[in-house]
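Repro:
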Amino acid sequence: MRWRTLLIAALLLGTSSAAYSADAIKIGVDGPFTGPSARIGLDIQNGTKMAIDDARAAGELPVMVDGEKRDIELVWIDDESSPEKAVKAYRDAIARQGIELMLNGWHGSVGLALVDISAADEIISFGNLAAPEEISEQITKNNYTHWFKGWPAPKSMSGLYVDAVEEFIAQGKWKPTAKKAAVVVEDTDWGRTWGEAIIGRLKEKGWEVVAEDVAKADETEFNALLTKYKAAGVEFTAFTLNAPSSAAALVKQHYGAGVKGLLAADGLGWASNWYEMTGEASNGVISMDSPRVLTDDEKKWSERFKAAYGADPSPAASGHAYDYTRMLIKGLATAGTLEKAKLSDTLLNSEYKGVWQFYSFAKKPGDGAVSAYEVKAGPFMKGFSFPMVQYYDGKDTVVWPTEFAQGEFKGPSR
């Protein structure tokens, strides 16, 4: 009956149609394939599948491990954006599917739920995009060597919004009448740590943070908050929200409420259909949440992705999933084994120039990251970091850092 189970899984979840040998390496791919962030999950799924197809075309699969050539079989672990459901799906993938490794992942709360139990099972999790610093702390506290944290801790990233805004002000591109700010974060580990970092940087730069608000992970009603911000004279609003529907709702309601000043929408770019969801309300909004299509390789990759899957990619989800999958395959070939200690050490000492980032992992806290086994943040194009874009008429134009800018930042018109 196993063939029937695999056939049903392929039909329901879009597993590659290529035949797998009985001894294929089973890799569990974590993601929100259903639920409020299902669009992001689809991008993760398609990016991973594209990486497998490209690795086969390049002759990287099957891969020689422990004296045997083995293909890869993907097992989809649908976390549904829920830590509890993630644990259940993971347990099922271990018990019934027999996964040997894990790849990718998105939500911070899900990563926190899985980091300890995957350690107990001695399952290497590679390139998980769960970012909260609490995961970094777990790695350090427990000397974990299995969890390769694929997104830097938020404090390494979110404060850059303030640095960019301060530069725009210094250049005279924006002249706020009052340095009053409001911050909205989702009620998750990611949201809280992201908020702490940007609030701290705002205060360092002389901003009065008049509101620090927390929203439910699937919240879509923000009018009461925005009315408060407008009355308080807020001129810089910054948020991070994972669910595409939540991010789009806040952008549209910020526009509709007539709140003055600049809006930083962290998470809007994680869904490739951001303009379809927001329309003209996104005009003038800034974001620094994703890789952007700048290089020839990125352009060609994006064209191939769209041709294969019928939609533009979300580089943050599909692009990183692709790069980490290719990097893991190369790591398997170099290590030549699934033995945990050797494979973990090989991956820790690997450097990889992907399509979207340059990837290397810290060997100790402070080595470009908050903890060991966390991807190193670094200068744009030399480490894990993103340019800032400004949205206008369905286009996302890079406006910062200046040396990579595709266009000029435009200050708010109201």
